[in-house]
Fold:
Amino acid sequence: MGSSRTTVSRRPTARRTVLAALGAAGTALLASGSTWARAAAQMLEALPGKRALRRLTHRPPNYETPLEYFRSVLTPNEAFFVRYHHAVIPQIEAAEFRLEVVGAALERPLTLTLAQLRAEFPPVELVAVCQCSGNRRGLFEPPVPGLQWGHGAMGNARWRGVRLADVLARAGLRSGAVEIAFDAADAAPLEGAPDYIKSLPLGKALHPDTLLAYEMNGAPLPELNGHPLRLVVPGWTATYWIKHVTRIEVLNTPASGFWMAGAYRMPRAAFPLLERFPSQESGERAPVTEIAVNSLITGSEILPGGRMRVRGIAWDAGHGIDRVDVSADGGRSWQRAELGDDLGRYSFRPWLFEWAPVAAGAQEVWSRASNRAGQTQVEQPIANPSGYQHNAFHRHRIEVKS
Amino acid sequence: MSARWIAMIVLAFGIAVAAVDSRAEGEPAARDGEGRELFVARCSSCHSLDYMEMHARFGTRALWEAEVTKMRNAYKAPLSDDEAKAIVEYLTRAYGPASSPASASR
Structure:
């Protein structure tokens, strides 16, 4: 098959290079003078540095983590899911990287190198789940258009970086700021198409757990997870975790681009969010913010004496997992699972449950997590037009031998 | 990143790296049907066609109309009304619930 790749850079001092390739169809379009030239830059690198992941789409690359990797509390970098909106993916040399911090409500706009971020700001580490708003979209019935994710558009990692609040303090945040917006080194393929820019409310941006991270599980960020710097917004869905972030803009008015005003929104009444985004709420739709409380059964085994054990993980927006209950009888009765190590309130929380099955044959085990804010998983996912926040009980089939 | 710069790269290197096919290795081919060439020319330069495969199980006309409208309005796909209509027709026939999976994944 004719795949081709070339690495190009504008000039020796170019800040970044792009992997671009163009096929015959693109050439024909160029020859015809069409605007399609812009669209013909294709990222043909499959998945450098990654293990085999479940592919949803080649281009832009969208790959989810197979379930077995969730048997460890921290998701390995090489197995961490990949999600891009645009096929033009930047490759940035760490030494050439610059982060701009701009906006009218700043005393001193800044440009920072990665070395400055590492050396001049106190490092912070925390474990947090990065989960796509549309994780499990493919499980909705009736089906909902969009990437048909299974359970693996998420991962849990130890992030190391600097506090966004510290960087904004260096720039001298003045009154009048409403939101902080983040732009990355990626680009929409067509002229006029909206750049992927997301904003955060001031309170979330200044929260001490909101980071500009340069490391993930003790290693530099992988290329496909935001190298060399990404936003980490613990508790909120991955739509805000801007990868390859190169520009931070302090806004005096709410961001109005497509990716804020036109996407990642849900019916406000359907989802009882505790952390909201008031400056972006309009009409009946509100932005997705917090990760809904959820759980996943990651495996089961038969123990000596005929007992069964199931293991899993539970997570939420950082309110903290209070309990996980398991039902082996279709929800008629529930028993409390044993919670494992606590790596912090934004982390996956492992759990296990053992019981003696009363009958042989195929059956289902259900898991249901509840958090310390009093939220609990739902029996059926809450229908919404874009298929976000699927957090129904996880149902896992087991075979009990007689 | 500047989209103009990307366009410059494409213009400068596009012809030099021209290959037989615009798809990356392993990408699914477009399903057969009237309107296939237009669909491939207009849609596959920005994204692979596994997006279509993924929706074929419930790819009704209403779904494809909504998707093509989104591509025009949100992603600025420069389609004329006639082209949009032809692509919706093609998608509805080739990637509808009654269609069969692509035979080719060259």
